């Protein structure tokens, strides 16, 4: 079985991307290895650590800033084509901070995975860590899920739980969530690639 082709989308530091790259490096290959390879990394902005990580690993990159396009639809179409050019089996949003549009979901729905720093359906959106703290939640965590046309509403694949400590600030909590999140994402992507999966309604089964 050949390795599944991954396109990873990033907007920032790219530590989740790095965790995937490290896991693949440690066990390259298809069924006999990690099961997937990163064939390209895309971003919505230039000059970010996530892109540097890709370049250092010799992986092709592409950048689609929203402001370079006349409308959100045009941006979405360009992002779709730039991603599709790498013929991905799976697309992974690893800290990609833009909501993609209909075009992208029509093309990659059912094979587009996102990681979110909260226990969905609680605290969706761009500030999952801050919102959980502000709400006074006692536990939070991370969710790896398939992306649908809503914001963080797609079928859940796996979740990791993190207890919130008294007096902890957003940065410290996010860092502890990310430790769990990186392992969860690596585990999930590897299993999806090696074993295949079914999505029935909201239920995801890794075969
Ligand atoms: C991760 O915690 C990810 O869940 C979050 O951004 C971080 C990216 O970290 N994504 C969102 O909040 C999306 N709504 P990284 O760039 O170091 O991988």
Automatic annotation (TrEMBL):
Pathway in which this enzyme or protein is active: Purine metabolism; IMP biosynthesis via de novo pathway; N(2)-formyl-N(1)-(5-phospho-D-ribosyl)glycinamide from N(1)-(5-phospho-D-ribosyl)glycinamide (10-formyl THF route): step 1/1
Positions of N(1)-(5-phospho-beta-D-ribosyl)glycinamide binding: 14-16
GO biological process: 'de novo' IMP biosynthetic process
Keywords from the named record: Purine biosynthesis, Transferase
InterPro entries registered for this protein in UniProt: Formyl_transf_N, Formyl_transf_N_sf, GART
Any Gene Ontology CC annotation: cytosol
EC number: 2.1.2.2
Function per UniProt: Catalyzes the transfer of a formyl group from 10-formyltetrahydrofolate to 5-phospho-ribosyl-glycinamide (GAR), producing 5-phospho-ribosyl-N-formylglycinamide (FGAR) and tetrahydrofolate.
Family to which this protein belongs: Belongs to the GART family.
Protein name per its UniProtKB record: Phosphoribosylglycinamide formyltransferase
UniProt source species: Streptomyces lavendulae subsp. lavendulae
Gene encoding the protein: purN
């Amino acid at each position: 079985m050949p390795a599944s082709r991954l396109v990873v989308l990033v907007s920032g530091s790219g530590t989740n991307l790095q965790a995937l790259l490290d896991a693949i490096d440690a066990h390259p290959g298809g069924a006999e290895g990690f099961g997937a390879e990163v064939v390209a990394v895309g971003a919505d902005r230039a000059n970010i650590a996530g892109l540097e990580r890709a370049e250092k690993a010799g992986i092709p990159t592409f950048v689609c800033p929203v402001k370079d396009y006349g409308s959100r639809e045009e941006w979405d179409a360009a992002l779709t084509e730039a991603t599709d050019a790498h013929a991905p089996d799976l697309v992974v949003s690893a800290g990609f901070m833009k909501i993609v549009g209909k075009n992208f979901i029509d093309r990659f729905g059912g094979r587009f995975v996102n990681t979110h720093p909260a226990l969905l359906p609680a605290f969706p959106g761009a500030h999952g860590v801050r919102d959980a703290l502000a709400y006074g939640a006692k536990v939070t965590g991370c969710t790896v899920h398939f992306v649908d046309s809503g914001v963080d509403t797609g079928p859940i694949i796996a979740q990791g739980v993190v207890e919130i400590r008294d007096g902890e600030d957003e940065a410290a909590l996010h860092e502890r969530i990310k430790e769990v999140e990186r392992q969860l994402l690596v585990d999930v992507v590897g299993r999806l690639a090696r074993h295949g999966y079914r999505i029935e309604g909201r239920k995801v089964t890794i075969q």
